[in-house]
TrEMBL record:
This is Bifunctional protein FolD. Belongs to the tetrahydrofolate dehydrogenase/cyclohydrolase family. Residues 6-120 form the Tetrahydrofolate dehydrogenase/cyclohydrolase catalytic domain. Residues 139-280 form the Tetrahydrofolate dehydrogenase/cyclohydrolase NAD(P)-binding domain. Keywords: Amino-acid biosynthesis, Histidine biosynthesis, Hydrolase, Methionine biosynthesis, Multifunctional enzyme, NADP, One-carbon metabolism, Oxidoreductase, Purine biosynthesis. Pathway: One-carbon metabolism; tetrahydrofolate interconversion. Its EC number is 1.5.1.5, 3.5.4.9. It comes from Paenisporosarcina cavernae.
Length: 283
């Protein structure tokens, strides 16, 4: 079988080597990029994600802190912690892992993070700048997907990109990034009528819905590029994406695996944003 796998792990590793070098250089001028990750509560998936973020930043030579706060943390306590980090010159990136417990208003927390340290790119100032084409932190998952395609020499200009899902974290910014790069973009979502008739038109199909193996070959055009953002467990408890990988890989020209596709690229872009933030805040 032809190798049509978009190997996010390999591409991420190559980009991370470059970041590691840049961290070394920056350290010679006395600046160590610092990332603080906050998690509230004990959601097992979130704990895995934040542990990975901390480990990766340490491996690349950054200062890294993981604040594990109890589920009972109040909104005010969390805001106060963020304000403290906003004022800490050794911290260049602040990330509050989502979702938060229900008694905390996510939007208030995102607003509290200084836009200059918002390495997730979720603050309305960064979202707004991005939408009108000004420089800003870009949300890590769609940014990672753009970088992956770029790394593989895939030009999206003029391509029909169909984005399945419209979250603030992935779907919405993904479509806008594609638009900025001259793709023709269609969004498909939970109220879309006849989903497969639209996804079948995609040259590049990006799926971020959080439903295990939702996309089968009936949803995909022959030769399409398929990007799977999902991270789910199948009926046997095995990790799987939103795309039925074995079923779709035979007709896709390229496809990302889960795990080892989009996930490593997301973390890598977080590292890149933190490095860029350290450069900017120290000059
Ligand atoms: N939860 C799922 N993805 C993300 C992400 O990219 N950033 C944060 N902060 N929380 C998330």
């Amino acid at each position: 079988m032809v190798n049509n796998i978009l190997d996010g792990k390999k591409i991420a590793s190559s980009i991370q080597s470059d970041i590691e070098q840049q961290v070394k250089t920056l350290k010679q001028s006395g600046v160590v990029p610092g990332l603080t990750v906050i998690i509230v509560g004990d959601n097992p998936a979130s704990i895995t994600y934040v542990t990975n973020k901390k480990r990766t930043s340490e491996r690349l030579g950054m200062n890294s802190a993981l604040l594990e706060l109890p589920e009972s943390t109040t909104e005010l306590e969390l805001v106060n912690k963020i304000v403290e980090l906003n004022n800490d010159p050794t911290v260049h990136g602040i990330l509050v892992q989502l979702p938060l417990p229900r008694h905390i208003d996510e939007s208030k927390i995102i607003h509290a993070i200084s836009p200059e340290k918002d390495v997730d790119g979720f603050h309305p100032i960064n979202v707004g700048k991005f939408v009108i084409g000004e420089e800003s932190f870009l949300p890590c998952t769609p940014y990672g997907i753009m970088e992956m395609l770029h790394f593989e020499g895939i030009d999206v200009a003029g391509k029909h990109v169909v984005v399945v899902g419209r979250s603030n974290i992935v779907g919405k910014p993904m479509g806008l990034m594609m638009l900025k790069n001259n793709a023709t973009v269609t969004y498909v979502h939970s109220k879309t009528v006849d989903v497969s008739s639209i996804t079948k038109q995609a040259d590049i199909l990006i799926v971020a819905v959080g439903k295990a193996k939702f996309i089968t070959s009936e949803f995909v055009k022959d030769g399409a590029i398929v990007i799977d953002v999902g991270m789910n467990r199948d009926e046997n408890g095995k990790l799987c994406g939103d795309v039925d990988f074995e079923n779709v890989r035979n007709i896709a020209s390229f496809i990302t695996p889960v795990p080892g596709g989009v996930g490593p690229m997301t973390i890598t872009m977080l590292m890149k944003n933190t490095l860029e933030s350290a450069k900017k805040l120290s000059t």
